[in-house]
Amino acid sequence: MTRIKIWDPVVRIFHWSLVGGFAANALFVDSESNLHLMIGYAIIMLVAVRLVWGFVGSQYARFTSFPPSANDAMAQVQDMVTGRVTIHKGHTPLGALMIYNLLFTLAVIGLSGWLMTTDMFWGVEWPEELHEVAVSWAEFSVVLHIAAVIFESIRTHVNLPRAMVTGYKDIP
Ligand code: HEM
Ligand code: HEM
Questions:
Q1: Would you tell me which of 91, 103, 111, 167 could form a disulfide with 95, CB atoms 3.0–4.6 Å apart?
Q2: Prediction pTM value
Q3: Beta carbon of 62 within 6 Å of any ligand 2 atom
Q4: Does residue 14 have its Cβ closer than 6 Å to ligand 2?
Q5: pLDDT tens digit string along 115-133?
Q6: In this structure, what DSSP letter does residue 86 have?
Q7: SS3 of 69, please?
Q8: What separation in Å is there between the alpha carbon of 12 and the centre of ligand 2?
Q9: HEC secondary structure over 122-135
Q10: How far is the CA of 165 from the centre of ligand 1 (A)?
């Protein structure tokens, strides 16, 4: 077993705060309340910080360490189908695509949500519709994200959720 430090505190705090905020706004908090807006702004801040951190953060937090690649993602799908195990120290190729999808979708949710609060777009329908569609897409993506994390953890014997808590991956 090799223990490697992968995720810095910014990535970990970002992730679990995002999970809490997203779950709260999607499932528990009244969408017409002030709390919904406060949590929404906090999520916008989190995503903004993460985008900056993708350029200046530690090695595995940087976007250059997980570039979007259809070829690499296909190779990972093949691994999943054939049972071959390739260990990725940072984000896996499929994980990378999901992360860009989630960050982009969260930005759309934040922007459309904020537009609804402005004088100019108050009562205009499309920001509300965009907000709803983006939230549904994010919920679908999150279910897939969690399923993939569990599947890959079992398959590769690397506990990915624990690594997102402790920062360390234990690689067999
Ligand atoms: C990830 C974060 C967020 C999630 C999961 C979320 C989710 C939702 C959901 C499920 C609704 C109800 C849609 C409906 O009426 O069917 C809603 C409405 C709304 N959201 Fe968000 N939202 C988020 C972020 C934000 C942000 C950042 C803002 C503003 C800065 C915002 C402002 C609003 C407003 C103004 C409404 C309409 C409230 C109403 O029903 O009158 N949301 N949101
Ligand atoms: C209990 C639920 C969740 C678990 C166990 C989980 C687990 C993980 C794990 C293990 C990673 C690293 C993946 C890898 O090794 O490539 C990750 C990354 C990520 N997850 Fe989740 N996740 C959960 C929920 C969510 C939710 C609700 C969101 C967003 C709405 C989310 C957004 C992200 C993002 C943006 C990253 C990239 C982290 C970064 O590089 O900053 N996750 N998640």
A1: 91
A2: 0.94
A3: no
A4: yes
A5: 999 999 988 999 999 999 9
A6: -
A7: coil
A8: 9
A9: CCCHHHHHHHHHHH
A10: 28
